[in-house]
Amino acid sequence: MQDLQSLTEEDLKGLPPEAIAALAQQMLQRLRCQDSELRFKDAKIEKITFQLSRLKAWKFGAKTEAMSAEQRRLFEETCVEDEASLQAQLDQARGAAAPPAGAGNEGRPKPRRSPLPEHPRREEHHHEPANTDCPNPECGRPMTRIGEDVSERLDIVPAEFFVHRHIYGKWACRCCQCLVQEAAAPQVIEGGMPAAGLIAHTLVSHFVDHLPYYRLETINARFKVHTPRSTLASWSGQGGAALLPPFDAHKRFVLSSQVLHVDETPVAMLDPGAGKTKRAYIWAYARAAFDAVPGVVYDFCVGRGAQYPIAFLSADGDEHGHWRGALVCDEYKAYDSVVGAEPERSGAGCLAHARRKFDELLREGGRSDVATEALQRIAQIYRVERELAALTAQARLDNRQAITKPMWEQLHAWMQLERSRVPDGSATAKALNYSLTAWTALTHHLVDGNVPVDNNHCENLICPWAMACS
Fold first, then answer.
1. Chain Cα centroid distance, residue 40
2. I need a labelling partner for 312 at 20 to 30 A (CA). Which of 80, 126, 160, 438 fits?
3. CA–CA gap between residue 159 and residue 195 (Å, rounded)
4. Is 262 helix (H, G, I), strand (E, B) or coil?
5. What integer pLDDT is reported at residue 79 of this predicted model?
6. Which residues of the chain, if any, have pLDDT below 70?
7. What is the CA radius of gyration of the chain?
8. 452 near 399, Cβ under 8 Å?
9. What stretches of 61-212 adopt beta strand conformation (E)?
10. Of 336, 367, 329, 341, nearest to 444 (Cα)?
11. Which residues contact 111 (CB under 8 A, 6 or more apart)?
């Protein structure tokens, strides 16, 4: 069958009527195929566009529908994946369908991506024309390189298993029959298979990235390395024992801060005897948010009682306590005992918790003039605190005395007045009582520039535990 596009007028003149009819039929069939393909592509574009618009409407629509905020967050990552997939399909379909001129995105500014970090190594790939002579047939002289365009793409090399071969040479004196050999290098697991790097990778994957051992076993098997989950658990246990000395040193460093944040979160602990899990707790102790060198240490405990932080903050188990300073915490009653265990300890409250009471009152109770006013006054304090965060402790304290102390005094007087106007036992009364009862702790930062206004610093550090174990 001849190519219709290659035929000329002279070719058509010499063809018999039967051939011209066949060519006409061939052209008609091709036009029908092209028309069918265009209709299919238009329908596909319409379908993808509808799916994309519906996804965006769900993403940016009202947040007060059937799903709660927590439920919506579970689907946000999947929503981003679906949106990117649909947009890529739409771009491919439009490119294949050859949209009319003016239907593109020429007038839209291209989004600017953030620059790639500087620390990864750069692997350069040079692309030059095969022939650098002038393509003009009348010239043909060698061209001059006048510059270059550089584009960067981020890549990754998957985990690589490799083997350390330690070769210890033996040296002997033929005269004295003396043998000399270098002592074996110390290992985390003496006589074991894993090197320190593999043990560290297992610990981070399990305890930081929260991957179960059976998943790690499957991941390693893809690299043709057999590591049963029981073996991985054994490595973690022995690796944890090796971390005890640096843990003790890090604990001393954290407790050397005169301002300490503390918070706790529940975790599920296996109870083989009962055939189920029971609740345990992770306690987080962090250096002050304003400290130049940050630090946080975690302590696993089977309960939430005051005896656990009292023991952690004591010196070698001294029941009277050892650490002294300002303890930033919420209004959980156990912290009163922790502060009272040492005469030179003081409690510092959390403004974020106090604010949360009014925010819950506004969200759950509907319109509340008291909650709205409280949130506005607290927002003014936070705006000033954000500006003071970069100052020294003394400068921060001076500015607090001059700027925010009057705000706190006005807030206190206003809360007392509003409390006298609302009935006992009401939701508004409970929100006001939380702040008024803890007023001394909430305003502790007004006498110590090293104390932050809330405990958000520690809550952010303990949040991964709560998210992974919930």
1. 42
2. 438
3. 15
4. strand
5. 64
6. 1-15, 51-52, 54-86, 95-113, 272-273, 275, 315-321, 365, 467-470
7. 35
8. no
9. 170-173, 178-181
10. 329
11. none
Q: From CA 216, how far away is CA 206, in angstroms rounded?
A: 8
Residue 373, both tokens: 């006013």
Beta-carbon neighbour count of residue 420 at 10 Å? 8
Is 405:384 a contact under the CB 8 Å cutoff?
no
How far is it, in rounded angstroms, from Cα 313 to Cα 260? 10
Q: Which DSSP string corresponds to 183-212?
A: PPPP-SSTT-S--HHHHHHHHIIIIIS---
Q: How far is CA 218 from CA 127, 201, 221, 224, in A?
A: 40, 15, 5, 10
The Cβ of residue 97 has, within 10 Å, a number of other Cβ atoms equal to 15
CA–CA dist 65, 98 (Å, integer): 40
Task: Look up residue 228 and give its two tokens.
Answer: 């049963």
- Between CA 424 and CA 131 the distance in angstroms is 89
Show Cβ contacts of residue 369 under 8 Å, excluding neighbours closer than 6 positions: none
CA dist., res. 169 & res. 357, Å (int): 70
- Mapped to the 3 state alphabet, what secondary structure does 408-470 carry? HHHHHHHHHHHHCCCCCCCHHHHHHHHHHHCHHHHCHHHCCCCCCCCCHHHHHHHHHHHHHHC
Our measurement of the distance from residue 280's CA atom to the centroid of its chain's CA atoms, rounded to an integer in Å, reads: 24
How far is residue 240's CA from residue 237's CA, in Å, rounded to a whole number? 5
AA identity, residue 258: Q
In this prediction, residue 59 carries a pLDDT of: 62
> CB–CB of 326/451 below 8 Å?
yes
